[in-house]
Amino acid sequence: MLIVYLSWTNNTKAIAEIIQKYVGGDLATVELQTPYPENYTQTVDQVAKENASGYLPLLKTKIADIEKYDVIFFGFPTLGHAAASSTRCTGTIHSGEDSQSKYRNRMEQRRI
Ligand SMILES: Cc1cc2nc3c(=O)[nH]c(=O)nc-3n(C[C@H](O)[C@H](O)[C@H](O)COP(=O)(O)O)c2cc1C
Q1: pLDDT by residue (tens digit) across 57-104?
Q2: For the domain that residue 102 is a member of, what is the CATH number?
Q3: How many domains does the chain have?
Q4: DSSP string of 60-102?
Q5: Closest ligand 1 atom to the C-alpha of 40?
Q6: Whose CA is nearest to atom 4 of ligand 1?
Q7: From 9's CA, which of 28, 34, 98, 103 has a CA 20 to 30 Å away?
Q8: Distance of CA 83 to the CA centre of its chain
Q9: Would the CB of 39 count as within 6 Å of ligand 1?
Q10: Residue 9 CB less than 6 A away from ligand 1
């Protein structure tokens, strides 16, 4: 089991850690190559623009062998009335081009 989370103010991180404590599994955080600003208003503005344009931020996080996980928990905050734009990039947490598209397809099938 894999528990992946994106967290700006650590609420989602806390929940992810609770899930791991009670359910087990591996924990991974989604890190952006360019983190969100520390300022609340700037972050809301940025996320709104990214969501409106469909921009997908580059992620620093890579998880090898993601196929080995049967169950993946994915936690993220609502930022600017929507899931943060970076949460649409989860296919890229996996290394390898073929596997990325495979994983993205699988996510779409399962509506994760
Ligand atoms: C920059 C920012 C924008 C937010 N925008 C919304 C929002 O539009 N709607 C909402 O219900 N909550 C919003 N929230 C609240 C967060 O979704 C909530 O605090 C969440 O628990 C934060 O998770 P995190 O600590 O893991 O980042 C926002 C929080 C932040 C910091």
Answers
A1: 888 888 888 889 999 898 988 877 777 666 666 555 654 444 344 445
A2: 3.40.50.360
A3: 1
A4: S--BTTGGG-S-EEEE--EETTEE-GGGGGGGGGBSSHHHHHH
A5: 1
A6: 79
A7: 103
A8: 10
A9: no
A10: yes
